[in-house]
């Protein structure tokens, strides 16, 4: 738990760094954007506003199929690493009002994520 809090605080401190559309998307980028969502994804409750903003920024950053699949794989790894609840992860786009093209799911097949796909 203490390690999760430290990771989350580091992510929150660096969340101001935005992903530029011309840059390749990395797991660090995804982690920074979704860092504010970690407590919600693990424990439920209400996601903070910075979480929803990060989700919006992530969707805006994944402009190619390669980026979407890369972001999907990053989310898949994070879901396993941080033991994210599947129910909170699946509800997050609706709660934030964001149509997103990737799942935060430890079991998703990221090779099936396409450029024009939207889950919520």
UniProtKB/TrEMBL annotation:
UniProt keywords, alphabetically: Lipid-binding, Signal, Transport
CDD domains in the cross-refs: nsLTP1
Alphabetical list of InterPro entries matching this protein: Bifun_inhib/LTP/seed_sf, Bifunc_inhib/LTP/seed_store, Plant_nsLTP
GO biological processes: lipid transport
All residue ranges annotated as the Bifunctional inhibitor/plant lipid transfer protein/seed storage helical domain in the record: 27-110
Gene3D superfamilies: Plant lipid-transfer and hydrophobic proteins (1.10.110.10)
Top-level taxon in the UniProt lineage: Eukaryota
Record SMART domains: AAI (SM00499)
Signal peptide range in chain numbering: 1-24
Single GO MF descriptor: lipid binding
Family as reported in the entry's similarity comment: Belongs to the plant LTP family.
Job of this protein: Plant non-specific lipid-transfer proteins transfer phospholipids as well as galactolipids across membranes. May play a role in wax or cutin deposition in the cell walls of expanding epidermal cells and certain secretory tissues.
Name the UniProt record assigns to this protein: Non-specific lipid-transfer protein
